[in-house]
Amino acid sequence: MPHLSDPDIVHAPHRLKALALLAVADTVEFGVLRDHLGVTDSVASKQLKVLTEAGYVVLDKPAGQSGRARTWVRITPAGRRALDGHLEALRELVAAAQGASR
Prior knowledge:
63% of the residues lie in helices and 11% in strands. The radius of gyration is 15 Å and the shape is elongated. It has 5 helices and 3 strands. By secondary structure, the chain is mainly α. A 3-stranded antiparallel sheet has the order 1-3-2. The relative contact order is 0.18. The longest helix is centred in the last third of the chain and has 24 residues, at 77-100.
């Protein structure tokens, strides 16, 4: 996988949407996140792999579950900072665009 810079990691639509959901829900079950993104398991897994490798989310599969094990996804402090920074950059772009149109 090519090296991604921080903005490239967060900016991708599925990853941005996942971080935004996790920022308000803190911990979300994989299936709920997948459905929120409107993607397949494999697409959700691929996006979460990038976020995990960046240290922005943590995956947890609790031991001792009977039946099918569920995976839980949690945003990390680094993920929250990356999301906040990205949202601030987007706000600045919007403000600049609105100022330019006046």
